[in-house]
Design a protein that fits this description.
The chain is of the alpha+beta class. It is 40% helix and 11% strand. It is globular, with a radius of gyration of 14 Å. The mean pLDDT is 80.
Length: 93
């Protein structure tokens, strides 16, 4: 099954999130054809920062977790993982 990603800013569907170059670790984020911004800048962020943005109710962070995060592209798994991660963060507070 092909993954369907979206722009975390304007929710426009996109086929790719980034382009990989031959140099190890070199990627270029895909630019959204609709809004002109990076499709998903959360790809380059640490998981803890994504969770913090979810706690702050930033819609872009939720879109990243639910639609663009590779292990969580399936919405059910994404929602379950996000809820579990938020519960863990809440327990620490």
């Amino acid at each position: 099954m092909a993954h369907h990603h979206i722009c975390t800013n304007c929710t426009t569907p996109t086929a790719t999130l980034y382009k990989v170059y031959s140099t190890p670790g070199s990627i270029q984020l895909t630019t959204c054809q609709n809004c002109g911004r990076d499709v998903d800048p959360y790809i380059e962020r640490e998981w803890l920062l994504v969770i913090m943005d979810c706690v702050l109710h930033r819609p872009e962070a939720f879109r990243h977790v639910l639609y663009n995060r590779e292990p969580f592209c399936d919405i059910y798994v994404g929602v379950k993982a996000a809820a579990s991660a938020l519960a863990d963060v809440n327990d620490c507070l």
